[in-house]
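Hello, quick one for you while I still have it in my head. Could you read through the record and tell me how the tokens relate to the sequence? No rush at all, and the record is pasted right below.
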Amino acid sequence: MHVAPGNSSTAPRGAARAPRRRQPDEPEAGPPNSRRRSAVAADYAVVGVFLAVGVVFVALNVEILSRALTWLSIPRKSLSPLKHTTYECGEEPLGESWIRFHVRYYLYALVYIVFAVETVFLFPWAVVFRQLGLAAFIEMVVFITILMLGLGYAWCKGALEWV
């Protein structure tokens, strides 16, 4: 009785099958889709290499071009000492150009930023106000109350007084 390779119809049940021989033109056996995965990985590697080379090329060109254009465009000698003075709307400058600012200006800016951020939170809430319900309304009242307490504190401390 002749049995074709790989045909186990004559082997008893539970018996181990002999490994099938690979034909010369047949690809090597491996995990499923392993060749496809390696091809995809190779494609991404090529894209990654081109991206890295492109970023380095652009960075170097921007650096070289910016330095070259700066070097070509700057004047070689100053025309007058007046060019190096601080410009104050046509008036003669008084004192040094580097002076200290009062901390109150920075505090005023910080209070402005806090209330600008508050409006960023209020606009989306106001758009969907009807769908949110009573719990969201109470949360927003608490939020606004905390901000108003902060505003009152800043006002009492004089942070809103312009010098």
Notes: The two ends are 111 Å apart (CA to CA). Residues 34-73 form the longest helix (40 residues). The mean pLDDT is 77.
